[in-house]
Amino acid sequence: MEFIKYEVEGAVGTITIDRQKALNALNSQVLDELNETLDAVDLATVRALILTGAGEKSFVAGADIAEMSTLTKAEGEAFGKKGNDVFRKLETFPIPVIATINGFALGGGCEISMSCDIRICSENAVFGQPEVGLGITPGFGGTQRLARIVGVGKAKEMIYGARNIKADEAYRIGLVNNVYPLEELMPAAKKLASIIAANAPIAVRNCKKAINDGLQVNMDQAIVIEEKLFGDCFETEDQKAGMGNFLEKDKEKKLKVVPFKNC
Ligand code: DAK
């Protein structure tokens, strides 16, 4: 891999997009490598992922404008599909993914962060969908995911106006869950990932699926999705151990990581 670094510490995997000469912009190779990296994550041991950018200036400064500038219509469509496929893989990845945004998150950078479950950022982060200034629409799901996360009016204001926002505004409108000084960002991401990884893994996975799938349908159908995923937790080692520890009032055991089985 030239542009993607992948490290595992305990049950937490960290994927770093490392193409600093272009502020970690997403070209076809980055997208291919990210796709391969996700396919290689060992889901038997890794329970949460962190996605970040290399360096102290940029998370991802967008899709690669130099590569896109010469695309034909057909090539543009193929590039859009490549990105959409990998972003969707992230969004539906069985375990939670925390976007850890350490600087510019513009265009495809903002979009990839919105494909993750949770976004946290550093104080120097900048978010935006500048595509209309480049003569295109957002192409990696920005028109869809931004409106769902921050609301239609705010999304339209940002997208139509190609208006970038800073970390404090991103926090205020709910685009990120928290803002940290840059040096505290990665420790905060690791802490959050470890908290998630310490909980029953089947339940965490099923919660992700229930929230994501439920948001696509009406409430009657959503409740049925939840019922099914709730039911799927029963008879698992996680459920037996988790409830057994509570009933035994064994505080020590309650804090232990439940073994990962039946997935
Ligand atoms: N692509 C390629 N190179 C980039 C880049 C990008 N998005 N962003 C930065 N770079 C490169 C710069 O060209 C420069 O390279 P050298 O000149 O050193 O070779 C290097 O990174 C450092 O950038 P700057 O010198 O510009 O650094 P500054 O600190 O002055 O400015 C900046 C930082 C982030 C404000 C600025 O670089 C900037 O405005 N970058 C572009 C941001 C942007 O517009 N991003 C959105 C890209 S559009 C679709 C699929 C996908 C998309 C659309 C359609 N379909 C096919 C359906 C997605 C579109 C986008 O993401």
The H/E string reads EEHEEHHEEHEEHHEHEHHHHH
Q: Provide the structure class.
A: alpha/beta
CATH class of the largest domain: Alpha Beta
Strand content: 15-25%
CATH homology group of the largest domain:
2-enoyl-CoA Hydratase, Chain A, domain 1
- According to CATH, what is the topology of the largest domain? 2-enoyl-CoA Hydratase, Chain A, domain 1
Strand order of the largest sheet: 1-2-3-5-7-10
Task: State the main characteristics.
2-enoyl-CoA Hydratase, Chain A, domain 1; alpha/beta; 49% helix; four-stranded mixed sheet; Lyase 2-enoyl-coa Hydratase, Chain  A, domain 2; 263 residues; binds 4-(N,N-dimethylamino)cinnamoyl-COA
SSE diagram, text form:
Blueprint: E1 4-9, E2 12-17, H1 28-40, E3 48-53, E4 58-60, H2 65-68, H3 73-91, E5 97-101, E6 104-106, H4 108-114, E7 118-122, E8 126-128, H5 142-150, H6 152-161, E9 165-166, H7 167-172, E10 178-180, H8 182-197, H9 201-214, H10 219-232, H11 237-247, H12 251-255
Bound molecules: 4-(N,N-dimethylamino)cinnamoyl-COA.
